[in-house]
Amino acid sequence: MSGAGTATLAVIGAGPKAIAVAAKAAELRAMGVDVPDVVVIERSGVGANWQAVGGWTDGQHRLGTSPEKDVGFPYRSTLVPRRNAELDERMTRHSWQAYLIASAQFAEWVDRGRPAPTHSGWSRYLRWVADNVGMTVLADEVVGVDVRDDRWALSTTRQTVQADGLMITGPGQAHRCILPHDPRVLSIAQFWSRAAGRELIAADRVAVIGGGETAASMLNELFRHRVSTITVISPQVTLFTRGEGFFENTLFSDPTDWTSLTLAERRDAFARTDRGVFSARVQDALLADDRIRHLRGRVAHAVARDDRIRLTLSSNRSGEALETVHGFDLVIDGSGADAMWFTPLLRQQARDLLELGLGAPLAGDVLEESIGVDLAVSGVTPKLFLPGLAGLMQGPGFPNLSCLGLLSDRVLGARYPRRADADEITRRTDEHQPVR
After folding, report:
1. DSSP 3-state helix, strand, coil percentages of the chain (rounded to 5)?
2. Which EC number applies (predicted)?
3. Which domains does the chain have, with CATH numbers?
4. Phi, psi (5° rounding) for residue 250?
5. What pLDDT digit, counting tens, does each position of 254-279 carry?
6. For 186, how many CA atoms within 13 A lie in the half-sphere containing its CB?
7. pTM for this structure?
8. Which entry of 116, 247, 317, 320 is 20 to 30 Å from 61 by CA?
9. What are the beta bridge partners of residue 144?
């Protein structure tokens, strides 16, 4: 429950961002610092998207980011003058290394050369942190977002949660699909479900839509199945390798100079290091497999015809629009995360509030350019934190795992309107306990 005058921050999704904020809030509270009460609403479980149950992975593929970039990284807190070193020391209790030591895995991990954990291994770390800090998780699903009396009102399947701030996390639904009712077209979730079965996927011509890490993980899995050719469809001119050197990584860990770049320079940096690119590890695997092909274009239309899935691709070449049609036996829609997945949840008053603050109709590019230093939409009260859309304006590490410690600083350092009394969050007694 929220005490008198204590703000409440509601978070949709119990993933790394929620856990990073909850962990730092817990340590700040232990230091006697006034911070919001963090309440996380999660329908599946802590770290669900890193497990097979979330639909985004089978849990067995390797984490693309170094695990040392954990919930406290980069350990440069700025919230408590003259006590930030103490806060950083407290956060090391929730580090990846601390987890390995607590679970008697540290020596083996070092001896094996510090390998990247599997997705399911990363989810076990996240659950360990959530348990350690007593993160409050409501096992429920948000079905509507509204505004009442200058607070967020989140309608779930069983209750209403009121909060002074709202942070929305997660990549959206893994069940999105361009042709949802044809068994020859698989969503991300359907692909991982099929891949986890005992029978290997068998097809002559397979298409994978998408050029990012979501598609890359599926390509890694497809290598072991009985497929003749795999065509990767993406709008890029080729399959680019993600920049992973010191200077590129620094952009993600330390966004100090990011705001001094022009928008064009920032978009160029994204194109080279984050969006629509494969990690070097995946590219090495692609080079070794002669079944891989690439088609440039965006899927404009999909239809089942003549025992095949026909995809119409649109592209722009030499300044002219061009459409081509290609047939496949199996299509996997790996177009990836959707940072705007939450918009159907917005009730009319919430949508009006956002559009009034934005001064424009609600759209992804408008929201991206409105994200302030605190990772919230500028000009909107109550606070709406959208770290998944913060990359363009605040730094490329905020939408992913690259600077969770900085993310928690920005969110917890935001200013909330003072209230004389905080309304209680209505929830059942048994829902006070963290989800296991």
Report:
1. 35, 25, 45
2. 1.14.13.59
3. 8-172+338-432 (3.50.50.60), 185-240+276-333 (3.50.50.60)
4. -60, -35
5. 899 999 999 999 988 877 666 555 66
6. 22
7. 0.89
8. 247
9. 155
